Amino acid sequence: MLWNEVIQAYMERKEWFLELMVQHITLALVAAALSGTIGLLVGIWIAEHERMSAPVLGIANVFYTIPSISLLGMLIPFLGIGNNTAVAALTIYGIMPMVRNTYAGIRGVSADVVMAARGMGSTDLQIMTRIKLPLAAGVIIAGVRSMVVMTISTAAIASFIGAGGLGVAIYRGITTYNMALTFGGSFLIALLALFSDLLLGRLEKNMKKRSGN
Questions:
Q1: pLDDT, position 161
Q2: Per-residue pLDDT, 213
Q3: How many angstroms separate the CA atoms of 146 and 101, rounded?
């Protein structure tokens, strides 16, 4: 059975699979950190400058619709092959859900609450950091959740341009007709994505309870 072959592959190549998993997690974490930071800042900016929201979200949507393998090919002439190109592509993909959710979360904060805070003498920075972001935290975390899961899943294609990660096992399994390697790499990616989704889902619920949403 295939599952028995997969278990045998895990046992025989446990150090290799562990190394690939560490590489995969590292790629995903770096890309997620960059996407989260850039997406949060851009989302805050367009929420405060409403007239810029349509073009920025439009551009983000365009990049989001480009097939991942095509985006990697477009970046290779500028960044070469390897981890840098993979991180850049994953970061670009991850920005969209962060921008969208940050924008939606901040714009969803009640105008009455903001006006009350402004009437009490709060500055724009204080309103953003103490009112808007805390109240929008649940929606923003939902964006982080989508972005992280997508980044972990999409990182599988990094092996096609010479980067590391569990995609190496999938690619090697495909090229050598070894279904155990292909399934083994895919299964571990699914586990990482599921674990991240459950963890961030719990955080999302807690944040929404605190913000009263």
A1: 86
A2: 55
A3: 10
